[in-house]
Each structure stands twice: as C-alpha cells, then as structure tokens.
Amino acid sequence: MTTPQATIAHGPAGPAQERRAVVRAARTVFAREGWTHTTLEAIAVEAGLEQAAVEQSFTDKEQLLLSVLLDSAATVAAALTAVAENHLGRITDLQGDLTALGRAWLTPLAAFPEHFAIVRHIGAEATRLPAGVLQMWQTAGPRQAQRELARRLGRIADEGLLDIADTDHAAGRFVQLVAGPIVQRSFHGALPLADSETDALIADGVADFVRLFSPAPVR
User: Fold this and answer.
1) Is the pLDDT assigned to residue 177 strictly greater than 60?
2) What DSSP designation does 181 have?
3) What is d(CA 29, CA 40) in angstroms, rounded to the nearest whole number?
4) Burial of 52 (0-12, 13-18, 19+ CB in 10 A)
5) 68, exposed or middle or buried, with CB in 10 Å at 0-12, 13-18, 19+?
6) What CATH number was assigned to the domain covering residues 60-213?
7) How far is CA 165 from the centre of its chain?
8) Going by C-beta distance under 8 Å and a sequence separation of 6 or more, which residues neighbour residue 20?
9) What is the pTM (predicted TM-score) of this model?
10) Residue 130, by phi and psi: left (phi above 0), alpha (psi -120 to 50) or beta?
11) Residue 8 predicted with pLDDT over 70
C-alpha cells in the first residue's frame, strides 16, 4: 500500500471542478459508510461521474480519504479559530466570556455534520485506517484549533486574568473540561443534548477551568 504522503505528492490531478465534485461526493459517502465500506464506485455514483473520472483525480481510496479529511478538518479548525477570536478578542467578564466561548466552540457539531460523522467512523475504524491518516488529521484539525485557542488564552494570561504557565496545556484543559463532556455524551453531535443539559455541562466546565487557572482564589 502506498503511504498517504506518497499518494498526495504524486497522484495525478484532474480538472479542478471535477476534483471538487469528487471530494464532495467522497465526504458524503465516507460519512455514510466509513472507510472500510466505501468504494470508488460508490463515490463515482454519488458524484455522477464514471469511476475512471474519479481515478483520474485520485489514484486510490487512501488518497481520497486523506484529501477529504484534511480539507474538512482545516475547515472546522478555521471555524474554531474564528470562534476563539470572536469570544476572546476583548474580555469584559472572564467567566461569562469563557461560557460564551464554550457554547460557540460546540457549534461545528451541527454546522459540519458530515465531518463529525466521519470522525465517528474514524473512532470505530482506527486500527484499519491507512498509516499516517490519524496523525495528519489531528495535525490539520484538532491540534491546529487548539493551538489557536492557546494563543488567545495566552493573551488573557498576559492581562493577568489567568495564571497560565503552558498555554497548550491550558487550551487542552479547556476543550477537555468544557466541550469534552458534550462531545462524548452526544457522540460528536449525533444525538444532540437538551439545551439545559448542555448549558449545565458548559457552566461546570468553565467553573472548573477558572478554578484551575485563576491567579487568585475564586470566591
């Protein structure tokens, strides 16, 4: 089997419009069927193309999965970067602003349902995925979003509102405490929680985060 790096570097490129149609179709099929059960034939049918046309743009299913994942993950990471900037650009009420950030951080679950359907499949098929796919997806998506969150939390720490020695660690803790319980309980958005439950989980997570990184005891 070729490595993801090799197929990306050397796979032939088809017409841009046709390539985009294939990626859109592949995203839909991967979201529905997962890696194991997806075929290039099914992707061609979804795209309304001959299988040969799909193979002109992508040499194999591995390259196509990687292209879909990297494109989708980068889109979600960009959305989360905008969320962090919008909610942490200027702090007027630390706990309130972090709570609003927590709510907004979860909006991609509903905004990008196919992406998170693929993520659910990834969790179930991790041991069967091509080598390197998980690492490259994590780098382009979750880790990129967390790095951007870390940068903005660092700014808040510089203002003396939080006591943070390691911004990457703090960003990871925010995601774990505030978003993690909702992501887990909703199965990455497949079974959305009631608003009241979501709000309670976010409030608890933010309170825990502030207690961990407050420069002074919270009264």
Assistant:
1) yes
2) H
3) 10
4) exposed
5) buried
6) 1.10.357.10
7) 25
8) none
9) 0.84
10) beta
11) no
The type of residue at 18 is E
Residue located via tokens 């690492």:
135
Helix ranges, the chain (H): 4-10, 16-37, 40-47, 51-57, 61-88, 94-105, 108-111, 113-125, 133-140, 142-158, 167-174, 180-185, 195-213
Q: Tell me how far apart the alpha carbons of residues 144 and 86 are, in angstroms, rounded to a whole number.
A: 17
pLDDT above 90 (res 11):
no
Instruction: Report d(CA 138, CA 217) in Å as an integer.
Output: 35
The sign of the CA dihedral 150, 153, 157, 163 is negative
162, 153 Cβ separation under 8 angstroms: yes
Place of tokens 């709510």: 103
What the block records as the tokens of 167 is 């911004």
Picking from 115, 104, 164, the residue whose alpha carbon sits closest to that of residue 142 is 115
Which 3 state secondary structure label does DSSP give 177? helix
Please give the Cα distance from 85 to 87 (Å, whole number): 6
In the predicted model, is pLDDT for residue 216 greater than 80?
no
Q: Which residues contact 71 (CB under 8 A, 6 or more apart)?
A: 23
Q: What is the largest CA-CA distance in the chain?
A: 66
Q: Where are the domains of the chain?
A: 60-213
What span, in angstroms and rounded, lies between the C-alpha atoms of 139 and 69?
A: 11
> How many Å apart are CA 211 and CA 209, to the nearest integer?
5
> 122 CB contacts (<8 Å, ≥6 apart)?
35, 129, 134, 137
